[in-house]
Amino acid sequence: MNHNGQSCYVLMEYRTKNYIDVWYKIAAMKKVLLFKSASEDYEKTFSKCNYQTIFVEPLEFVYINLQKLSEKLQNGNYHGLILTSPRAIEAVSRCWAPSKFILWNTKRIYTVGESSNRKVKLLLGLEALGTSTGNAENLAKLITKENPESSKFLFPCGNFSSELLPSMLHSSGIVVDSLTVYETKENENLRTNLMAVNDSEEPCCMVFFSPSGCEYIHRQLQTFNNKLSNLPHFAIGNSTAHKIENLGVEIAGVAVKPKAESVIESIEQYFRTLQSCR
């Protein structure tokens, strides 16, 4: 074989090896069923850890009381704003005007996660505090620590919002003005989407992101024979985990923080433990 022929052979061998490596990587990727709207952040983070993501949104949201919310946002008597969900941030953004609500530039905005902080920055142009707290209980402790008694906060929330945060703040003498700005409903395509995943995919586990989502999914899975119910169930936080357990299902793991890296850590810890027990 001449020099050129040898070079071509080496190149073909290299390319073939690369293709095989890629094929094995794809074949080895584990699929995870995430009950949330499609997220580029989650998709990228999971892919880096050799996971494929399957997104199924169990919820639909209807925004309400936006006129009332707009009026409250113009009220200068609040010390700050508490936004514990993406929908609450979205509701505020729907009636937001930077020039109109410039007073919020000097007030405290609190949220519970880094993705929510990015959303606050993107939609409202504001910086949020509490992004590393991870849940409502820790956020309430931080707000209590950083603000004097009788401080007043506006708390836009959903119709299924937990009373934990307002109760903790009230017990510390902080006033919370809660306003329901969105209603949570079951996605009308949920059953169809669950059946499609059951028939065509092989996920290794499922991740739940809200108590209401858990309830809707659990109810729909009772309506047809499926493989999904037997998969390990993971939760984004404690309130979601408690809901899963209340439905009579064992919880496999709970993410320490509401972010993709923490979800993956919880999943991998579970499967490592499972492997070591064999």
From TrEMBL:
GO terms for biological process: heme B biosynthetic process; uroporphyrinogen III biosynthetic process. It is an enzyme of class 4 (lyase). The keyword Lyase applies. Pfam families: HEM4 (PF02602). It catalyses: hydroxymethylbilane = uroporphyrinogen III + H2O. CDD domains: HemD. GO terms for cellular component: cytosol. InterPro entries: 4pyrrol_synth_uPrphyn_synth, UROS/Hem4. Pathway: Porphyrin-containing compound metabolism; protoporphyrin-IX biosynthesis; coproporphyrinogen-III from 5-aminolevulinate: step 3/4. Its EC number is 4.2.1.75. GO terms for molecular function: uroporphyrinogen-III synthase activity. The keyword Lyase applies. Residues 42-264 form the Tetrapyrrole biosynthesis uroporphyrinogen III synthase domain. Keywords: Heme biosynthesis, Lyase, Porphyrin biosynthesis. Catalyzes cyclization of the linear tetrapyrrole, hydroxymethylbilane, to the macrocyclic uroporphyrinogen III, the branch point for the various sub-pathways leading to the wide diversity of porphyrins. Porphyrins act as cofactors for a multitude of enzymes that perform a variety of processes within the cell such as methionine synthesis (vitamin B12) or oxygen transport (heme). Belongs to the uroporphyrinogen-III synthase family. This is Uroporphyrinogen-III synthase. It comes from Parnassius apollo.
